[in-house]
Hints:
The complex is a heterodimer.
Chain A: H1 4-16, H2 19-42, H3 44-50, H4 52-60, H5 62-99, H6 105-117, H7 120-131, H8 148-174, H9 177-185, H10 190-198, H11 203-219, H12 222-231, H13 240-249, H14 256-287, H15 297-304, H16 307-329, H17 344-378, H18 383-397, H19 400-412, H20 421-447, H21 450-458, H22 463-492, H23 495-500, H24 507-516, H25 520-552
Helix pairs in contact in A: 2-17, 2-19, 2-20, 3-14, 4-14, 5-8, 5-11, 5-13, 5-14, 5-16, 6-8, 6-16, 7-8, 7-12, 7-16, 7-24, 7-25, 8-11, 8-12, 8-16, 9-10, 11-14, 12-24, 13-14, 14-19, 17-18, 17-20, 17-22, 18-20, 19-20, 20-22, 21-22, 24-25
Chain B: E1 4-13, E2 16-26, E3 31-35, H1 42-50, E4 57-62, E5 65-66, E6 78-80, H2 92-96, H3 98-102, H4 107-120, H5 136-148, E7 154-158, H6 166-183, E8 186-191, H7 194-200, E9 203-208, E10 211-216, H8 218-223, H9 228-233, E11 238-247, E12 252-257, E13 262-267, E14 275-280, E15 285-288, E16 292-301, E17 305-312, E18 317-323, E19 334-339, E20 345-348, H10 353-358
Parallel strand pairs in B: 3-8, 3-9, 6-7, 7-8
Antiparallel strand pairs in B: 1-2, 1-4, 4-5, 9-10, 11-12, 11-14, 12-13, 14-20, 15-19, 16-17, 16-19, 17-18
The complex binds adenosine-5'-triphosphate and magnesium ion (MG).
Magnesium ion binds next to helix 1 of chain B.
Amino acid sequence: xxxxxxxxxxxxxxxxGSSKVRRSWFAFACAVFIIVIVVPSIFVVTKLxxxxxxxxxxxxxxxxxxxxxxAVANSFSIALVVTVIDIVVGLPMAWIMVRKDFKGKxxxxxxxxxxxxxxxxxxxxxxxxxxGAPEGVELPGLGIVVxxxxxxxxxxxxxxxxxxxxxxxxxxxQIEPNFETAAMTxxxxxxxxxxxxTLPLFRAGLATGFILCFARSLxxxxxxxxxxxxxxxESTFFTGPSFISWLKxxxxxxxxxxxxxxxxxxxxxxxxxxxxxxxxxxxxxxGFHIPLKKVWPDLGRKxxxxxxxxxxxxxxxxxxxxxxxxPAFYIFMYLTxxxxxxxxxxxxxxxxxxxxxxxxxxxxxxxxxxxxxxxxARHRDGKLGQTLDGLVxxxxxxxxxxxxxxxxxxxxxxxxxxxxxxxxxxxxxxxxTYPLVVRNLIGAIEEVDPAYEEVAMTxxxxxxxxxxxxxxxxxxxxxxxGGILAFTRSLGETGATTAISNTVNTVPIYITKLVQSGDYTxxxxxxxxxxxxxxxxxxxxxxxxxxxxxxxx
Amino acid sequence: xxxxxxxxxxxxxxxxxxVRDISLDINNGEYVTILGPSGCGKTTLIKVISGIWRPTExxxxxxxxxxxxIPMEDRDVGYVFQNIALFPHMSLKENVAxxxxxxxxxxxxMESLSTEYLELVGMLARAGMFPDExxxxxxxxxxxxxxxxxxxxxxxxxxxxxxLDARVRVELxxxxxxxVKKLGxxxxxxxxxxxxxxxxxxxxxxxxxxxxxxxxxxxxxxxxPKSVFAANFIGETNLLxxxxxxxxxxxxxxxxxxxxxxxxxxxxxxxxxxxVVISVRPEHVYTATDGLExxxxxxxxxxxxxxxxxxxxxxxxxxxxxxxxxxxxxxxDRVHLVFNKKAIVVFERPxxxxxxxxxxx
Lengths: 553, 361
Ligand SMILES: Nc1ncnc2c1ncn2[C@@H]1O[C@H](COP(=O)(O)OP(=O)(O)OP(=O)(O)O)[C@@H](O)[C@H]1O
Ligand SMILES: [Mg+2]
């Protein structure tokens, strides 16, 4: 028994020596990617042709059509506003994180990521409690009455802002600080140096950040729906995904056909627009040149000195605290309340489901993601490599509600429906987490000189052995980082899960149900339990991985 | 006009002094090289002079004006970075025109200045190219053109030639000197390469542990170094431990090597019995029929001459040169060495011994 895994690895080592085996392994990973991830994600588009009748009836019904269109319009305009705010406020933040040294920077760094670890459903509760004074909530909020639209913007900033700051800092870190210093010795003020040197070098990061945030906002379901429910406007104000959730929760308003038609229409519109956006933003940002050659030295100087830069830093930090961190953490205020009765059986059951789904999804992501990432990283110049590189982003861009809906339709066609609900939910979660794992890996593998592996192979290592012994240890931290990202993302997902099934009870779904029935205190306590579990896991992972790498070094 | 005066400059990072108490005057149009072992504070010093860093103590004056608190963009100091730092998203022309552009000097100035300085460094034909299309040497030329186009009368160069291959390096350094002399620019040039320092500078500033070890013209430092460290760091030399054994009335000194052999030097201020170190450069060591006995341990061909390495009877290692046309001894041969009396420099023997003194960190 003891020898079994070793001999299995040996077997794989041997097998990997044959190029046939390697090629079929890659072909397998490719096939899984296409058949299980890409096609089901966009399958719904074919419904436009096969079930045009359903869609047509929705289009001809003024009431429901206008609702659908306004929901989609809301989604896109919220996403755009949020992304622009993220850029404007994220840039100075990224700047602070990369170029400044101060006490407490480590803390700030950790705090910045925290909202990402919260399920968005929790953020939804927390934000509404913080800004508004929803009925039925005991805790005092700021009591500001804002329109649902503005509240959505506040909410979406929470879970997009960290992405933006991360993407921007990653790029900023790669830009030589000497460029700015050089510009300044040539007479440019700080501001001018930034505008003429750093900003233009920034474009790639801007594109990534833009797409990530936009897609995330477009896609978000759980938090949005919960926030709208708490404000009592879930049946009058819609975003694309919240409309689908609402349809599912209240089947009495429309006929089954109308519902199906409306979902198809929303999904298709959102998928098509999102994909278009991906292409357009890439092109636009890559081709974008700051048109202004002219420089105003005096203005630049005024902007670079005196109270303005200080004010900018203070405002940036204030924004992070007041608009991002406080609202996100506000839910912990519930700890000051008497602890309500929680149905621990159901809560633990839903937590188990969530972890099962997330765990399986991440494991599959890694297994089929590694060969894909290796191929893409090493074949960037090839046609196939570029195509795959583009395709990997697709599930990331598509709103998860549309993705889930599409996936359910696809597998439903094969007779896999409610009884396989858990399996379908897992497949759905694989789809939208896969890009997170693969993207991270591609980045890491590209940094590794292929010569390492080649050297190992010239020393007689079989390819799989070389990968195991040489490449994997190097990219391990990227695998872990991607895995954590994917895991938390899956844990927090509401939209795809609801769209796929009514019966699978993950934590966010459970929390949403509690909110729907007005049990805010219970919902909040469940959220706190979930956050606590997430933190413990992340802490343990971080400790384990850092100790390992410490020993390796 | 650019006369630089440093008054007791220190730069501290935490408790660590990267530069300590440096005072220095640099004349208008002077070409000064800063030489010293790695980490001795060369980069720090020119960063302080150009305003990239503010010194923690001391003052910087330019033409008599205190500029310590003037930010770098108003200092008007050209600075060429060790890693070149050409802006990758701009063509060579745009790079060179950057300074006139950010000073809003207008399109004509941008055009004429960039043309002029690209021409000056011989890169005008490539004006439309981007930095990543150039070799390291070409990039370096453009970086220099960019710094010059700012019109500043001071230029800081941080090991600008170190990344280049030997030939290009030698060519570029003379070209550089010619250029800045023509423009009347005051230059501080940091380098690791003592040959480079010697061949281009009006004056060499030798640094060590964040302080100035010695300042002088290349000839002064080479011929009459004031410390064992300088003698060893600039040029090549033989260092031998001796003791003063006798002094004549007019100051002429006799020394005893460790093996008891006697050597004559010129006038010194040492007293009989003082422990000293003498420095004598290989070109001032000759073979003779009589003198310090030594055994040849290696013979190395250096191109224009042979370098012969020996171990003397006094246990010192002594090297000397033989013209490449002449016969060289073979390994194991016994030779007798004599030193050019006038070229011997005598130093007090450092407490930590010679090794501690010439250590390079
Ligand atoms: N920003 C900084 N913070 C802390 N210490 C620094 C900083 N910059 C330089 N130092 C320290 O100051 C000392 C001098 O550095 P400097 O870069 O001036 O050396 P250098 O003489 O230019 O060396 P090299 O020849 O290797 O370039 C070094 O010990 C370095 O570690
Ligand atoms: Mg240096």
